[in-house]
Amino acid sequence: MKYRAGLCNIFLLGLICASPFSAAAQQQPRARALGAPFEGTPGPLDAITDVSGVEVGQKTLISGEGKLVVGQGPVRTGVTAIFPRGKNAIDPVFGAWFTENGNGEMTGTTWLEESGVLAGPVLITNTHSVGVVRDAVIQWELRHDYYEVEEDWWSLPVVAETWDGYLNDINGFHVKPQDAWDAMDSARTGPVEEGNVGGGTGMICFEFKGGIGTASRVLAESLGGYTVGVLVQCNCCSRHLLRIAGVPVGTEIPGKPIWSLRKDRGRQDSGSIIVVVATDAPLLPTQLKRLARRVTLGLGRLGSIASDGSGDIFVAFSTANAGAGLAKKKTQVTMLPNEQMDPLFEAAVQATEEAVVNALVAAKTMTGIADRTVEELPHDKLREVLKKYNRLAPVQ
User: Fold this and answer.
1) Predicted local distance difference test score (pLDDT) of residue 23
2) Catalytic residue among 63, 272, 307, 318
3) For the chain, which terminal residue's Cβ has fewer other Cβ atoms within 10 angstroms, N or C?
4) What is the pLDDT of residue 261?
């Protein structure tokens, strides 16, 4: 079988792992290790967890092979959970969301838009599992006595999706509440595993194998020393569009097309991308909306056109102003002046670009339903192409 079962390396008709990081997460090559040049200064982990307090947990579901039998598999899917202040904290954060193209779903955004407050985690899964994961978040919060639950307590979880039906038995509804609970329970700080893991297990990006990716940027002390971290679940875009460091990688490394090509409409992408942006800079919800919008510029660097069939949906939050979300009376908050936000915009663009490339580099060739195979981005060929265009950087 041509698939990688995350941490477990299980090549059986069984499941599964629940972990955000491991020795494998630290040892597997990342884009910088292959010589991909990126601007800006990454944090120690080059991950969203460089923002203090942020925790990530993942549950990967891989089982079966061969012919699709709805309800039985093959299964190539999972759940990823991001906690802004960690799973043991009940303190909400200021947040905002933005959609570049809305052929997708992110629950809880109506109240997020209205209140400017994000309470609880952000979870990402496959398109047809959003409902069960959303309900599982509420059940998890009840079990953990979130907010000292009272009769009038309510929760509107933020749960997003991308479509993995090319490789996964998406209509078999294999993601169960326990899988979401496992992802949340496993959340912690530290390195974040990338590629074929969590919600990104069965995803495709630029018609290469895609999945989960992350990156971060740290501003100079003269600019505040703030950190911006990004996590992506990438499942979008056609191969011919892919550019890395300005190099037309997608046309230089041709391969089997995944998405359909129609003469009357051109190539029709069937994927989406979810991006979570975290920062410790003191930003208000309106400023976080501005930060979330800059994700589109990072994706544009890679060649994304936010196609009609894509759900390009982003959420941003700030871990500053602790306690403001729970205040019962007038309280003071801090904010960065708008005129000082440009370095944060730049950091968000850079980290988004690198996070997607990290996902592509980490993802491994996978075979799913009906023996459909999606090839990984070949590392040797990527280095050759970057060298051809004089864009190969020293290995980091």
Assistant:
1) 42
2) 272
3) C
4) 52
Pairing of the two strands 122-126 and 158-162: parallel
**Angstrom distances, CA of residue 374 to CA of 168, 183, 201, 209, 369:** 12, 25, 12, 6, 11
**How many distinct structural domains can be found in the chain?**
1
Tokens, residue 23:
């020795």
> DSSP state, 215?
E
CB proximity list for 12: less than 8 A, separation 6 or greater? 63
CA distances from 229 to 20, 42, 78, 170 (A): 16, 9, 22, 30
CATH of the domain at 112: 3.60.70.12
Q: Which of 300, 326, 327 is nearest to 312 (CA)?
A: 300
Q: Report pLDDT for 150.
A: 66
Task: Tell me which H or E stretch contains 202.
Answer: none
Which regions of the chain are under pLDDT 70?
Answer: 1-27, 147-151, 260-270, 396
pLDDT at residue number 327:
83
Question: Rounded to an integer, what distance in angstroms lies between the CA atom of residue 279 and that of residue 71?
Answer: 40
388 domain residue, yes or no: no
Active site residue 312: yes
Range of the domain at 238: 17-377
Which DSSP symbol is given to 332? Answer: -
211-218: strand order across its sheet: 117-118, 93-102, 311-318, 272-279, 227-235, 211-218
11, part of any domain: no
Indicate whether 371 belongs to any domain.
Answer: yes
Q: Which of 96, 48, 98 is nearest to 293 (CA)?
A: 98
User: What φ, ψ does residue 107 adopt, rounded to 5°?
Assistant: -70, 160
Q: What share of the chain is helix, strand, coil (3-state, %, to 5)?
A: 30, 25, 45
Query: Does any domain span residue 9?
Result: no
Q: Token pair for residue 67?
A: 């012919």
